[in-house]
Amino acid sequence: MKRFSIYSVLAILLFSLTSCEAVGTVFEAGKWYGIILAVIIVGVLFFLFGRGKK
């Protein structure tokens, strides 16, 4: 049953989005994930270096 629901979701996505839209959506999500991750890493580095100089 679980396998059926995964395939049905994939089929709906394939028929509702063109390939360019689907790829664009994936890359846009990856772009925001990368930006958020970079901001978190820079924040942690500033916190660690700022704490070490006191």
From TrEMBL:
Keywords assigned: Membrane, Transmembrane, Transmembrane helix
Classification via PROSITE patterns: PROKAR_LIPOPROTEIN
The keyword Transmembrane helix is annotated on this UniProt entry: yes
TM annotation in the entry: 32-50
Protein name: Phosphatidate cytidylyltransferase
Organism: Chryseobacterium taklimakanense
